[in-house]
Design goal:
alpha/beta; 15-stranded parallel sheet; ten-stranded mixed sheet; 33 helices; 55 strands; 19% strand; globular; disordered N terminus
Length: 1246
């Protein structure tokens, strides 16, 4: 191979440049699958995955919380799969300048590597020939591509590269090409890269001083001397690549020989490389199915060097979800990048099974991070002190796997800080354990992030199941239905998918059906043992009782309702709910509904079954409808039963559905029964059959017209009679146009529901009136949703002094709403969606003056007052106009959430601006809305989503606006006029003033000439908009050529130039490029990123267009023209500038040509007039030359993208990884009108 390489050496340099190292996407690999969150089986060495990319997320000043769908496990391996380790021919590739170091340092280093059995690539003859080549000869040799491929192949076949940067390194084009290739491998395959600064300073490389500056200047002069523009573009692009590569390598953690003895220095290098090459898990890295986002997130977090303190990451989730596997993977991927590292696995089990387990783990940790082995110590506190001392001088990467005890965590971490740049990963089922450890009580607290693993998506779940069950990634013919059933049963749990898939390998469909049927009765023992650990970790009996209650009865119900019910059952719900959520056995959905993984729910129910496997009536809870029916039919209930549920519609036996009637004594033996659900059950006898111990009674489909006298349950706190035939609740019901006396629910002034806190009569279509509230003194929640026949809510509701929640959504015939509702001092939630308030006058409670109804209203419902205590108010879909609102809402001091969705308002009502505490405002589908101006400064979320094209044109925020989440659908604003003042302005080119275009230097544009002449104006004028953001104007239009006045041009995607002298002041710079892509017409594409670097001033702006990820352009070629305004100190004569057009996604895109022109203040222009023309645009705060702190990613580097309008520390989007240096987080904070854009987001009302 190398003989052929040497034969083609003459053409090594100045070949047609390959892709930029920062733009490369990794070659896909398909390694062996493997998963286990507990004890994984041995896995074969396999290739490393795609490189990590950052994920956007929200954050806070001290803690960042990230949640990703749990997507764990291995990729299906085809027959051709092979491991990266197997493909590695060399351990180390040496890149160096021979004339500086070949016979001295490199010779000694190479020998030391060989003595250490580290295979090192070094070809002396090839290097001599390469370096003797003259550039004049290289430029005419045609076969350099072969040599480049050979060189790149050797670099790819090496596990590590050492770059010896010496005085004359940058003189050699060959060395610089090697550097680019090495950095490509660092990005694409996580190759170990170690720079060695050999008697030079890293700053000489960064700033291109001394010999490096002279060398790069010579390369540029040689390129500029080329008279053929096409030939000149190739070396120009290479020089841009070399410049960026030198800057990047100078920022890497390397070794400096200055002031060191070379023998000791070489020994240190060899030890370091040996440790990195042979670190734990590095040779066995499975690619995990669907885990790419999590790997990318953790990898990016590990590479973030922006913190001066220790970074701690907690990876948490339920048992078996993949925490250990993820941690082990990234440890193998990145441990070599640290001075020292340690992975302490399975801590909970080892400490629980062995009395001295903790001491053994402490010894393991100390031995891993210390240069000397410890003697046996029998005191955990002494070991902790030794560990603290050992980690103070080295950058440490530590993984503590499966921590469940704060004592164990403190014993292993201690309380003293670590060396700056150290990283700690903790895996646990305990969400908040880490932040309570002693390390966080130090004066300088670590920076803490959390990452939650949740579950595989359905597609990845099927792929994983099929791999284990069929040894392929799709179901076999005939198995589609059964595999779908099993995927749904596992609900994305990777450990369950693996063990159940293995159990079904090579089985027929009939066996699958029987197996799945048995799973409904009994959970797999291996899966049960893993999940049971989560339950056993709950610290108190209250926690376990709450878990079992929810698993059996309350999954999917409102948390606040369940909390009220279980409090009445004697459970300390405040602590128990917090614990269950913290231990990952329970979660709360955005609609406040209780969520529990199906496998955890099955496990909880199985624990109850174990109380009495063969006698259901002796268990504490009965949730199976068939079993409940049998117990009631045979009257076998016992005093053990705390809860029972029966839904007749859930029974498979249709005959029983129609004939069963609850007997009077069916519940008589259940004297501890507190939770009872009898949906669609016929009850035609006396109601005194219900035990007085009941706290929750749910009777959907209640057959009678009203509540009878003998339903007396003084301990009942929740009554749910939804979907019933009831006509009235209270004293009266409405029939044939008249109110008639009802039997009521009180007898002889005895309060039958004195403890009732929750009344739910939703979807009772025949219900006409609700009253008698004076007999419900404890009522807290009144839910009457979708009672489409409801006409009246009685004034007696004002006597429910404890009422906090009223839900009247879609009661569209309601005629009488209590005027005295404003006397309710605790109501915090009022939901009036779809109540036809179209002519109502809304007023605010004011105890000092009476409520004045609207003068045009005759119906009593049409004037109502809002309680001052409201926190959430929904007036959605009520046909309310601006005139329906009062001028002032300031009395609603506590209101935080306001829903005005679907109303025909043309602007945000003025009263909204007066709300002093508003946090969330939703105006979804307000199709006549044209402007939203100056919402309250307290606002944190604004929802403007539309199902059809809106009329919205302008959004204006106050300069002092706090960070804001802004949800809208970008597609409706193309093409149109749209402006978020201070952030982005979009207007059709037809409406842009000529003075503005002239001040930008935009002249003689073909499409403008057509428009001005009236040709195709309906098409062109409506399609092309001018965008303005960050001080950058831009237009995008179909075309294949640059405008004639773009006079500095370059073929390809980059251009490099020196700002020329001029007698006039530089006003701005026009950049234009022609971009080609292969997509269907009108298909959404990713616009490229413009990377604008002033090398002289060490500043870089990376600009991604407002519609950068969602642009729709017809045709195969388009032109992007942009004007960049700069302040005087940003761009000056003599500055060296490079501009690169970088593609963020592989979409078969190519930049054909790019060019620039300069715009000056000349004698023909009136400076004052020009300033006036652009004065509005220059007044914006977040533009180049002004406040861009919120968009800074590292020193001198800014990412100009909508995403930057967010809180400090938020991670940038993954498509920018590789383009930005250092951290993948925004560093600063915006202060005026900052928003977080959620394009295309379908936010639900929470």
């Amino acid at each position: 191979m190398f003989a052929r390489w040497q034969a083609n050496l003459a053409c090594f340099d100045f070949e047609v440049p390959g892709p930029k190292f920062s733009d490369l996407e990794p070659e896909p690999v398909r390694p062996d699958p493997k998963f286990s969150d507990l004890e994984p089986d041995p896995v074969r060495p396999i290739s490393v995955p795609e490189p990590p990319v950052p994920i956007s997320s929200s954050s806070s000043s001290s803690e960042i919380n990230y949640t990703f769908p749990m997507v764990v496990l291995s990729e299906f391996v085809g027959p051709s799969s092979s491991s990266t380790i197997d493909r590695h021919t060399y351990d180390v590739f040496l890149s160096f300048r021979g004339c500086d170091t070949r016979d001295t340092f490199i010779d000694h280093l190479h020998k030391a590597f060989m003595d250490a059995d580290i295979t090192t690539f070094l070809d002396d003859e090839m290097i001599k020939i390469k370096e003797d080549l003259k550039p004049e000869v290289e430029s005419v040799i045609k076969t350099g591509k072969d040599l480049k491929l050979e060189r790149d192949s050797v670099i790819k076949e090496s596990r590590a590269s050492i770059i010896v940067l010496s005085k004359n390194y940058a003189n050699s084009p060959g060395c610089l090409d090697e550097l680019v290739s090495i950095l490509e491998q660092r990005i694409s395959s996580n190759q170990i890269v170690l720079p060695v600064f050999y008697h030079i300073k890293p700053t000489d490389i960064t700033k291109q001083n001394s010999s490096f500056g002279l060398a790069m200047a010579e390369h540029r002069q040689r390129a500029e001397a080329e008279t053929d523009a096409n030939k000149r573009s190739d070396p120009s692009q290479k020089i841009n690549q070399w410049t960026k590569a030198l800057t990047e390598v100078s920022k890497l953690r390397g070794k400096d020989v200055n002031g060191r003895r070379e023998t000791e220095f070489i020994e240190e290098i060899v030890k370091d490389i040996y440790r990195r090459l042979h670190g734990p898990f590095r040779s066995a890295l499975p690619l995990l199915i669907g885990m790419k986002n999590s790997i990318n997130f953790v990898s990016t977090w590990l590479k973030d060097a922006s913190s001066d303190t220790t970074d701690v990451l907690t990876i948490f989730g339920m048992g078996g979800i993949g925490k250990t596997t993820l941690a082990k993977y990234v440890y193998g991927l990145h441990s070599h990048e640290f001075d020292t590292s340690s992975f302490i696995e399975d801590i909970s089990r080892k400490c629980g099974e062995n009395f001295n387990g903790l001491l053994g783990l402490q010894k393991q940790l100390y031995d891993d991070i210390s240069e000397q082995s410890s003697t046996q110590v029998h005191d955990a506190s002494i070991y902790t002190s030794m560990i603290e001392n050992a980690r103070t001088t080295k950058k440490l990467f530590l993984v503590l796997d499966d921590i469940a005890s704060l004592y164990h965590l403190n014993a292993l971490l201690g309380s003293r800080g670590l060396y700056p740049g150290s990283k700690i990963i903790i895996t646990t089922i305990h969400r908040s354990l880490t932040e309570h450890c002693a390390l966080f009580r130090a004066k300088v607290k670590p920076r803490h992030a959390k990452h939650m693993l949740q579950g595989l998506c359905e597609i990845e779940s099927q792929k994983l199941l099929c791999y284990h069950a069929f040894r392929c990634d799709v179901p076999k013919t005939g198995y589609e239905e059964v595999s779908e059933k099993l995927v749904k049963y596992c609900e994305g749990h990777p450990f369950a998918l693996e063990i159940l898939g293995k159990s079904l390998y090579n089985r027929d469909v009939a066996y699958w059906e029987e197996f799945i049927s048995e799973l409904k009765k009994e959970i797999d023992s291996r899966l049960y043992s893993v999940l049971r650990k989560t339950f056993d970790a709950l610290p108190s009996e209250d926690d376990k009782e709450l878990f079992k209650h929810i698993a059996c009865f309350f999954v999917g119900m409102d948390k606040d309702i369940v909390k009220t019910i279980l409090e009445a059952c004697g459970i300390n719900t405040n602590y128990a709910f917090m614990t269950a959520i913290d231990r990952c056995v329970l979660s709360i959905g955005c609609d406040n509904k209780l969520q529990m993984h199906q496998l955890l729910q099955n496990m909880g129910r199985f624990i109850v079954c174990e109380e009495s496997p063969d006698k259901p009536w002796e268990r504490s809870r009965l949730w199976c409808h068939e079993e409940s029916l049998k117990v009631l039919l045979k009257k076998k209930g016992t005093g053990n039963v705390l809860g029972l549920t029966l839904d007749m519609k859930m029974l498979e036996n249709e005959k029983l559905r129609d004939t069963f009637e609850l007997k009077e004594d069916a519940l008589s033996k259940m004297d501890k029964l507190m939770l009872l659900q009898l949906n669609y059950v016929q009850i035609n006898r006396s109601y005194n059959i219900f035990p007085k111990t009941l706290r929750w009674l749910c009777m959907h489909g209640f057959p009678l017209k009203s509540i009878t006298l003998d339903l007396a349950m003084v301990n009942l706190v929740a009554l749910d009679m939804s979907y019933s035939n009831i006509k009235s609740f209270g004293t009266f019901y409405f029939q044939q146009g008249h109110y008639k006396q009802s039997t009521g629910f009180c007898s002889n002034d005895k309060v039958l529901f004195g403890s009732l806190k929750i009344l739910n009569l939703s979807f009772c279509g025949q219900l006409t009136s609700v009253g008698g509230f004076e007999k419900l003194p404890a009522l807290e929640r009144l839910i009457l949703r979708n009672c489409v026949g409801l006409l009246e809510v009685c004034e007696s509701i004002s006597q429910c002094s404890e009422l906090v929640h009223i839900d009247l959504r879609h009661c569209n015939k309601l005629q009488k709403f209590p005027k005295m509702v404003d006397y309710l001092r605790k109501v915090n939630s009022l939901l009036l969606d779809g109540c036809n308030l179209d002519e109502s006058q809304i007023t605010i409670s004011n105890k000092d003056s009476p409520v004045i109804p609207h003068p045009l209203c005759d119906l009593p419902f049409l004037a109502f007052s809002l309680p001052r205590s409201l926190v959430t108010l929904s007036l959605a879909n009520n046909n309310l106009s601006i005139e329906s609102f009062p001028r002032d809402f300031s009395h609603l001091y506590w209101l935080k959430n306001l829903y005005l969705d679907g109303n025909p308002i043309v602007s945000m009502p003025d009263c909204v601006r007066s709300l002093p505490s508003l946090v969330m405002l939703s105006m979804r589908n307000c199709k006549f809305l044209m402007s939203v101006e100056r919402p309250p400064q307290t606002l944190r979320e604004l929802i403007l989503l539309f199902d059809t094209k809106p009329l919205l044109r302008k959004i204006l925020f106050d300069q002092e606006m706090s960070p804001l989440k802004f949800s809208y659908d970008w597609k409706w604003f193309i093409p149109s006029f749209f402006e978020v003042e201070g952030m982005v302005k979009i207007e059709p080119m037809a409406s842009v003033k000529e003075k503005v275009l002239r001040s930008l230097g935009w002249i003689n544009l073909d499409f403008l000439n057509k428009m001005l002449k009236g040709k195709d104006s309906s098409d062109i004028g409506s399609e092309i908009q001018m965008y303005y953001e960050f001080g950058i104007f831009s237009i995008i239009y179909r075309g294949k050529e640059l405008p004639e006045w773009i006079n500095h041009r370059s073929i390809g995607s980059s251009i490099s130039f020196i700002i020329p002298p001029s007698p006039y002041d530089l006003r701005g710079l026009n950049l234009c490029f022609v971009h080609q892509f292969q997509v269907e017409s009108n298909e959404s594409i990713y616009l490229p990123i413009i990377e604008f670097s002033n090398i002289t001033k060490n500043r870089t702006w990376m600009y991604h267009h407002y519609f950068g990820r969602n642009a729709i352009v017809g045709g195969e070629c388009f032109v992007v023209l942009s004007h960049w305004m700069f302040e005087m100190n940003e761009m000056e004569v003599g500055d060296h500038v490079t501009i690169t057009i970088s593609v963020t996604k592989q979409q078969h895109q190519l930049t054909q040509e790019c060019g620039v022109s300069f715009v000056y203040d000349d004698d023909d222009d009136d400076d004052d007039d020009m300033d006036e023309v652009l004065g509005y645009y220059k007044s914006w705060n977040h533009i180049i030359g002004r406040d861009l702190k919120g968009f800074q990613t590292t020193t001198g580097e800014y990412l100009l993208n909508i995403q930057g309008f967010t809180r400090h520390g938020t991670e940038v989007d993954q498509c920018y990884h590789g383009l930005i240096g250092g951290s993948n987080h925004y560093k600063g904070t915006c202060h005026s009108g900052q928003i977080l854009i959620h394009g295309n987001e379908q936010t639900e009302k929470c």
